[in-house]
């Protein structure tokens, strides 16, 4: 078994010098491909650079149809074939600058999560992190506590997976619309939310802590779920779950000292971000990769090593990686009926809406809460309390109680469908020769056909 030594660290000043001498180069090409925009990124190789780029593209709501990654040694080249969310080419002139900024200004590293309720204040809002055991009505109880304490929820994202829940909630003071900076008031809110998270169970009870640092919301949700071990004891409860279950394989490429990850799953937006984020936060480094997502399925292949330079060395570690990547793919999956609520924003709106959900036996599996000016635009995915599809008459009753003109049923454009036969592909050829096919994939040559 190979175990490659990790490269010798350099001091910060030398790293800054290297960055100044070799600034990131980002090129945008709309002529190379008929259907997609090609984004090519060349930069000095730093751990986490790939995630930085993927995060920017994800935040811009770009769909990554294909990607080719090569980052062995001191330099990396990433090539992405992207479209906008409607499948069109992209002509935003600011993409290049935004990607370069992400590579030039390194963000905070991985924060260790030891607690499950955290509060972080900024000038505009206070951020609350919660994680714990999921149960019907939990979200309603959380929003009720915030409403009772005169907190306005301006944004939130909630994920549930494998009986666990994680959420990041941004609140302001009802009185002045600013962040809540009273320590006693914040502590009281935290303690009440702690009681809600614990419920009647002492098993895996929640704790409280004040968050430090700043991390992109969805990356933070992945970290919270991972820390809460939502990847343990995953069960497949139905034929639909079995059909949508990600196929993840982990094998060692002994002659090259890599571990090879292969993933096949239904495609959806932000899938690449979810897998790259998890691989990075598990302390692995991606050296090469190929992603193809041009149909209902997505295939991903990565050549990785642990950050200490070693490939995966035990069956227990291999199984853990399989479970964690499967969980990362499933966390954002949209289970249930999609409901969209658009109305004037007000304090207590979410408390009232989720209370009506609870009273009608609906359970929220995922939620996205946003505020645009004075308007609240909220997305909920709901099932019944047992996780099964909700009857249409129940949905109509809920709509009548909330308001037929403000709560709408939306078809999920990314609903599950039977996986198609995966197209075969491999990165192994790059180790045999610098083939014309690989150069074509990287956008360095054009097809002669």
TrEMBL record:
Q: Which GO terms describe its molecular function?
A: amino acid binding
PROSITE patterns in the cross-refs: ACT (PS51671)
Species lineage: Eukaryota, Viridiplantae, Streptophyta, Embryophyta, Tracheophyta
Under the heading InterPro entries, the entry gives: ACR1-12, ACT-like_dom_sf, ACT_dom
Which keywords describe this protein according to UniProt?
Repeat
> Origin organism of this chain?
Perilla frutescens var. hirtella
* Function (record text): Binds amino acids.
Q: Which residues form the ACT domain?
A: 38-118, 127-204, 338-417
Q: Which PANTHER family match?
A: ACT DOMAIN-CONTAINING PROTEIN ACR, ACT DOMAIN-CONTAINING PROTEIN ACR4-RELATED
Task: Please identify the protein, giving its name as recorded.
Answer: ACT domain-containing protein ACR
| Pfam families according to UniProt | ACT
């Amino acid at each position: 078994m190979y175990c490659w030594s990790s490269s010798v660290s350099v001091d910060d000043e030398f790293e800054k010098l290297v960055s100044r001498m070799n600034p990131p180069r980002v090129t945008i090409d709309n002529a190379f491909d008929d259907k997609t925009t090609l984004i090519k990124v060349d930069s000095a190789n730093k751990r986490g650079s790939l995630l930085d780029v993927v995060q920017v593209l994800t935040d811009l709501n770009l769909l990554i149809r294909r990607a080719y990654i090569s980052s062995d040694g001191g330099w990396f080249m990433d090539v992405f074939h992207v479209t906008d969310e409607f499948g069109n080419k992209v002509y935003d002139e600011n993409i290049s600058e935004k990607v370069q900024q992400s590579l030039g200004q390194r963000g905070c590293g991985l924060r260790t999560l030891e607690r499950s309720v955290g509060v972080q204040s900024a000038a505009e809002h206070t951020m609350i992190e919660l994680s714990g055991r999921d149960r019907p009505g939990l979200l309603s109880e959380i929003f009720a506590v915030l409403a009772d304490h005169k907190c306005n929820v301006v944004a939130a994202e909630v994920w549930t997976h494998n009986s666990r829940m994680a959420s990041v909630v941004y609140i302001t003071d009802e009185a002045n619309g600013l962040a809540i900076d009273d320590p006693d008031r914040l502590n009281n809110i935290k303690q009440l939310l702690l009681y809600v998270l614990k419920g009647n169970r002492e098993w895996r009870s929640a704790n409280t802590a004040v968050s430090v640092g700043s991390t992109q919301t969805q990356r933070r949700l992945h970290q919270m779920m991972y820390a809460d071990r939502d990847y343990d004891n995953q069960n497949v409860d139905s034929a639909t779950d079995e059909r949508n279950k990600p196929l993840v394989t982990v094998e060692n490429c002994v002659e090259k000292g890599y571990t090879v990850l292969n993933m096949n799953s239904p495609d959806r937006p932000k899938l690449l971000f979810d897998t790259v984020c998890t691989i990075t936060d598990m302390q692995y480094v991606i050296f090469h990769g190929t992603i193809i997502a041009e149909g209902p399925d997505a295939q991903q292949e990565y050549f990785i090593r642990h950050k200490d330079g070693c490939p995966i060395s035990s069956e227990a570690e291999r199984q853990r990686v399989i479970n964690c990547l499967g969980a990362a793919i499933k966390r954002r999956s949209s289970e249930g009926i999609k409901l969209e609520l658009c109305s004037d924003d007000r304090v207590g709106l979410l408390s009232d809406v989720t209370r009506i959900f609870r009273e009608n036996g609906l359970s929220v599996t995922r939620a996205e809460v946003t505020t645009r000016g004075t308007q609240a635009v909220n997305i909920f995915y709901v099932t019944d309390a047992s996780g099964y599809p909700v009857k249409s008459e129940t949905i109509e009753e809920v709509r009548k109680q909330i308001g037929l003109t403000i709560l709408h049923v939306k078809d999920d454009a990314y609903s599950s469908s039977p996986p198609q036969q995966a197209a075969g592909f491999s990165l192994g050829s790059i180790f045999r020769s610098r083939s014309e096919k690989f150069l074509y994939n990287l956008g360095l040559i054009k097809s002669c056909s």
